Amino acid sequence: MNRPTRHTEDLGADNTANLEVAMELLTRLVRARIGGGNIAPEGEISLNFFDDGSELGNLIRDRRPGFSEYVILLLALAPHAMPALLDREIRDALNKQGDFPEIGGSRHTDSRTFIPTGQTAAYLLADEDIQGRFEVQRLFRPEHWFAETGLLRLEPPEDGAPALAGRIVMSRDWADRLTVGAADAPPFSAAFPARRIETKRSWDDLVLPAQTREQLDELLRWARFEKTLATDWEFGARLRPGYRALFHGTSGTGKTFAATLLGRSTGRDVYRVDLSAIVSKYVGETEKNLSALFEAAHRRDWILFFDEADALFGKRTAVKDSHDRYANQEVSYLLQRVEEFDGICILASNLRANIDDAFLRRFNAIIRFPEPGPDERSAIWERALPNCGSKDARDRLIARINGYELTGGGIVNVAQFAAIEAAARSDRELILEDVELGIRREIEKEGRVFKQRSGTS
């Protein structure tokens, strides 16, 4: 493709420049085809784009579409970028030269926008060339990168209609990315049972044993270098797709925190999946919901985090009735999608023993998040307590409370409680009584008996 000589800094990182040249090309293509002119890429109509860091520029640079692929991409994009373009150009041509039913297309029910069909693409690219029309049809097959990336699809035609009579539809997130430059995730629902989670903190705030940190570092190295291995090293065919990790340990030991830090470190969004929202009482709905979730995660390179995974990934039940049989089918389907997912998939469980043994073998890493010992607790208290009062007073306070067995999450809750109580007194000094009251509540919340340690008042 030819690249116009224009400075990137003059363009910005939006799609405007590439959309302008793309819609101009599509306009000339429609006019040339209906007018009987030459549409060969080496003729008057050539492919141009700006490698400007925009979503559209990046897509063209990375995929390097051929002429036919580029035209189909533009046909799918036109209703979102310039809804009136195809309608105007076709109508002007029809007024001058007669009726062209072979141009295909359909009207959107609400907007009345002209939506191109496979027939539209075949007419513009091949006209009456039968072999050329078959080549166009092949571009909509499941193995083509249009389908693999979820970029666009050819809707199934009505019964008895030609194969190319279906509409060319671009997915909503890709349409947003290639126009306004960003795509919002669908709202949380049974059909999209996931919420984005993030953190502003750093790895220094996560206190873990050395072995746990080393395993997390291995996961980070995979995220940073898996594309290098697959492409530069030509190792892709020998690599299993994706990376599956099991985080297991008591609540509050840092499993969710670690997942958000992985996302921040790798530039990926992390979505926590609500397994209770996935399971549907309607047969087939669970698989449909899971499929939509995994397809969105694949397209956007998300990290999927299944919290409390025991709910669905646990040991499968003996089949006593049709409900048990369908529940096991749900688990099997979910395991299949997890294994096929080419990104990072993390399952979190309070107990490793709760996860089906057959599935444990599929993990790349099984990472234990133990409850913190005295040294780890001291470090967590140091990070969690606010910087108010003197350092000596904070050090004495930590020395007196460090013997209470709490998880990192529990310690953060206590620090927040004590800080609020101090602020309510307009006091810059934390007091032992507030901290111990917070500790009592955390311990009793877990069903344990609080015993005040000696040496405290």
Write the layout of secondary structure elements.
Layout: H1 8-11, H2 16-34, H3 55-63, H4 67-81, H5 85-97, E1 106-107, E2 114-115, H6 118-126, H7 130-138, H8 145-148, E3 152-154, E4 168-170, H9 172-179, E5 194-197, H10 210-232, E6 243-248, H11 255-266, E7 270-273, H12 275-278, H13 285-300, E8 303-306, H14 310-313, H15 322-340, E9 344-349, H16 357-360, E10 365-368, H17 374-384, H18 391-401, H19 408-424, H20 432-445
Helix pairs in contact: 2-4, 2-5, 6-7, 10-11, 13-15, 17-19, 19-20
Description of the molecule:
This protein is an alpha/beta fold. It folds into three domains: 172 residues, no CATH class; 175 residues, P-loop containing nucleotide triphosphate hydrolases (Rossmann fold, 3-Layer(aba) Sandwich), CATH 3.40.50; 72 residues, Helicase, Ruva Protein, domain 3 (Orthogonal Bundle), CATH 1.10.8. It contains 20 helices and ten strands. It is elongated and about 95 Å long. The N terminus is likely disordered.
